[in-house]
Amino acid sequence: MVITPDVSNLSFKIKNGIKYFELIAEKVKQEILPGLYINGLGYNGSIPGPTIQVYPGDYVNIRVYNELDEPTSVHWHGLDIPNSMDGVPEVEPSPQILPGSYFDYHFKIINPPGTHMYHTHMNSSKQEMMGLGGGFIILDPYETNRVIQKDYFIMLHEFHLKDLKMQEVKKGTYDIDPLSNDFNFFTMNGKCYPYTTPLSVIKGDIIRIRLGNIAMDSHPIHIHGHQFFVSASDGNTIPSYVRLKKNTILVASGETWDIEFKANNPGAWPFHCHMPHHMSNNMTSKIGGMFTTIVYNKYK
């Protein structure tokens, strides 16, 4: 299974061979740094929402409840599904979900194993930038832990918090300006460094990190002390004989990338966006923002 640090996996029930999931679009008070909260929008109390994990061939029913004060929808980003289930009501035969109502998205998973996302597709300039998105992973039923020992998903995001002066980080609860491009906090799975959870590895492990981005900025994600192979793009596996070997990959809005590397250089290694402003908390001097660490565990 895929691990999404600081975010849960969405549970399901099976009835008559169908996997039933439930998502609740709602207002969320999210702690992005100790004692520093944002008033955002999320799913099931989380920004990003819980990670959905399925297999090729699964029949799924995802009931989405709308507890917002405006209509919403969910788009299953990168999935090949019926037009009526795609979640863009303004141009498709896919309904708005009105406040206090719900809609059942149901479809068969026909894509191969890969990394995808889900997010709102109504009033996107507001709702996406308030946090309404999450990961959607199609697992490989034939892959074992002999192939990949650790498999992580990281959702990238950025926010403009109101009522904070430049280079000020104070505990409290802050509203977001979703229409601003002047971002001052940058997150991995809804947290800013040093509040992000490190990615734990063991020497000799093969590690996969899945990266997703539904927000505004592009993020050049860089690893220290290692080289990685780019193994998938937008949920599509790249054949091993044409994979690029890199240490930085640009994750643009709407993209997912999978990277893989061997844990062969023990230590505590930075893994972060390389945009200078993006690895700070409101432009303060200490490391922050879209930054985590890869930490070697001494024990199996």
Sum this structure up briefly.
The chain has 300 residues and is mostly beta strands. The protein contains one helix and 22 strands.
Q: What is the fold's blueprint, element by element?
A:
Blueprint lengths: L12 E3 L2 E16 L2 E8 L5 E6 L4 E8 L8 E3 L24 E7 L5 E6 L4 H4 L5 E6 L11 E10 L12 E4 L9 E4 L10 E4 L3 E8 L5 E5 L4 E6 L2 E2 L7 E2 L1 E4 L4 E7 L5 E6 L17 E7 L3
Parallel strand pairs: 2-5, 3-11, 4-9, 10-14, 13-22
Antiparallel strand pairs: 1-2, 2-3, 5-7, 6-8, 8-9, 10-12, 14-20, 15-19, 15-21, 16-17, 16-18, 16-20, 21-22
Key features of this structure:
globular; 300 residues; 1 helix; 44% strand; 1% helix; mainly beta; single chain; 7-stranded mixed sheet
What's the rounded overall pLDDT mean?
A: 97
Order of helices and strands: EEEEEEEEHEEEEEEEEEEEEEE
Could you describe the largest sheet, including whether it forms a barrel? 7 strands, mixed
> Number of helical segments?
1
Class inferred from helices and paired strands: mainly beta
Q: If you compute it from the alpha carbons, what radius of gyration comes out, rounded to the nearest whole angstrom?
A: 19 Å
Helix amount:
under 10%
